[in-house]
Each structure stands twice: as C-alpha cells, then as structure tokens.
Amino acid sequence: MNFNEEEIKATILYHLRRKKVIGGVHTPFDTLRRGFPSHLGKDIEKIAKELIKEGLILTKPAPYGLQVSLNKEKIQEIETIIKKVLGFSFS
C-alpha cells in the first residue's frame, strides 16, 4: 500500500486519537511507526516531527525516551484532518 504525506499524517493522528493518547496520557515516540511498512520509517519520523512543529502533537521528555500525546486544545482540528483525509469520524 502506498501512502502519501497527508495519509501518513492523518494515520498517525488517527492512531493516537483512537487510543485516546490525549493531553496527560503519553506514548513513546517510537510507537508512531507501528502499523506502517518498515521502509517508511524515516518518512514517519519526519512527518511526526512536522506534527510536533505544528503543535498537533505535544512532547514530554522522560528518562526512558521521548513521549508524545495529542494536543487536547487542537482536538477539533485533529479530528477534522482525520475525517477529511481518512473519512473516519469520532462521536
């Protein structure tokens, strides 16, 4: 399956949103690559860093590695991106 940049971005956001990794709930940065083909690893990392710069994903440094979560203040924007690109909606 081929992914374009928008699909990768929306899929990362969808995975975090579906698992309710929002605000104070964090997951390791490395888990963002899960579910994608291994040859896309560098692309996933680059796009995840773009999401961090855009403020859609927040980071939290920890002694055991970088942790990430969705920005709860931008959850509406995140859900709009997911619905527009992937067609999934949340109630």
Structure description:
There is one protein chain. With 91 residues, the protein is of the alpha+beta class. It has one domain (5-74): Winged helix-like DNA-binding domain superfamily/Winged helix DNA-binding domain (Arc Repressor Mutant, subunit A), CATH 1.10.10.10. Helices cover 44% and strands 11% of the residues. The chain contains 3 helices and 3 strands. The protein has a 3-stranded antiparallel sheet with strand order 1-3-2. A hairpin with a 6-residue loop joins strand 2 and strand 3. The protein is globular, with a radius of gyration of 12 Å. The N and C termini lie far apart (28 Å). 20% of the residues are buried.
Short description:
The protein is of the alpha+beta class and 91 residues long.
Sequence-ordered SSE layout with sheet pairings:
Layout (H helix, E strand, L loop, with lengths): L4 H14 L8 E2 L12 H14 L2 E4 L6 E4 L4 H12 L5
Antiparallel strand pairs: 1-3, 2-3
Helix pairs in contact: 1-2, 1-3
State mean pLDDT (0 to 100 scale).
92
User: How many beta-strand runs?
Assistant: 3
Provide the spatial order of strands within the biggest beta sheet: 1-3-2
Tell me the name of the CATH homologous superfamily.
Answer: Winged helix-like DNA-binding domain superfamily/Winged helix DNA-binding domain
How many structural domains? Answer: 1
Tally of individual helices: 3
Largest sheet report: 3 strands, antiparallel
Alpha-carbon distance between the two ends: 28 Å
The CATH class is identified as Mainly Alpha
- Please estimate the helix content: 40-55%
Give the C-alpha Rg: 12 Å
Q: Which residues form runs of ≥5 with pLDDT under 50?
A: none
Q: How much β-strand is present in the residues?
A: 5-15%
**What class would the helix/strand composition place it in?**
alpha+beta
Helix and strand element order? HEHEEH
Look up the CATH topology.
Answer: Arc Repressor Mutant, subunit A
Q: Oligomeric form of this entry?
A: single chain
The name of the CATH architecture is: Orthogonal Bundle
Which term fits the overall shape?
globular
